[in-house]
Structure formats: C-alpha cells, structure tokens
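[job 0412] stage=complex_fold ligand=zinc ion status=START
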Amino acid sequence: MDVKKIYMDADALLEGHFKLSSGNHSQFYLQSAKVLEDPRTAQLLARALADEIKESGLKIDTVCAPALGGLIAGFALAQALDVRYIFAERVDGVMSIRRGFEVSKGEKVLMCEDIITTGGSAMEAAAVVKELGGEIVGVVALANRGFCKRENSDVTTKPNCKLPQNIPFFALEDFTFEMYSPDACPLCKDGSEAIKPGSRGN
Ligand code: ZN
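[job 0412] stage=complex_fold status=DONE, emitting structure tokens
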C-alpha cells in the first residue's frame, strides 16, 4: 500500500512552515483528517493495519485512541479488528478517560493514533488506561514520523521516542521529515512564521 501517494492524492501532505504539537517546527505536515474524510480510504488503511496486527498474533480486547487526532483511525481500526473501542481526551490539559468508559483489570488495549511522532500523546493516554487496570499490548498509527522504530522497518529508534521498547509499534509507512527546535529552525531564520496546522484553512 502506497500511503505516501494516498496522502498526496488527498492533499494531506502539506508543505509550508508548521508548528507541531511537540513545539518543534517542520516544513511538512501530514493532515490525516483530509485522508480520513473518505470513509472508504479510512477503512482501507485500517484493514491494512489490522492485517499486519493479526499476522503478528497480538491478542487485543480493545482499541483506545487519544482525541482528537486518533479518533477516526481508532474507530476504523477497532472495526477492522472487530474489537471494542474507547477514547481518551484532554480535560484542562490532562488526559482522561470519561463518558462512562470502563477498563477491566488485565484488558489488553492497543493504543491508536493517526500519526506518531515521539508518541507523547499515545503514552499519556496509555498511562490512564494502565491506571484503570488495562494492559498496553501495542501502539499503532497510520504513519510514523520516524522517531520510533515500527515493526518491519529499518528506521531506527531516536532518543526522543517516548514509546516503550518492550511493546510492538505498527504503522503503514515511515515519513522521516526534518524537524527543528524553534531557535534552530531555518524557516524561522528566513523570516517566515510557523503556523499551527488546522488553522488558516489547512
Ligand atoms: Zn520555524
């Protein structure tokens, strides 16, 4: 599956000057919402991920996604895996599980994001699931921004990766774009201003 082509065809691989949720700047941004606005594409990607996960033999009870980014991918993946689906959300900046969702002791939970960069949000949500008694058995994303090593890829783990090394990480593609801290960003040095993706029409 050519995930890069899917993002390009959906005008979801943006070029410009972006401020990422980590605070770093980048010339590129993957706007997964544009890919997932077509439910058939969402299902296609989710089925490909589900196949890879099933092949690995991983046992899963539930998919959990951190809102907002992981919501659609998580739902589609849970459907493809035919398992339960819950989500975590930020309340006053703190990741929480609400809406009456329960997690049983020992429940095997797969964390799902649209894009994993360092895995920070996924692991924040994972900590809440663990507190409730769940067991995190894996992490999955449509695409990997290249900080963490996914299953079946040569891209190596970088120090910024926050995903634990003892659980598998699945993704369909590696996108290894350069990222800069704001004070070392060449785009800032050229005088342009980083924008938060999702604002100003993108
Ligand atoms: Zn910049």
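The radius of gyration is 17 Å.
[job 0412] exit 0
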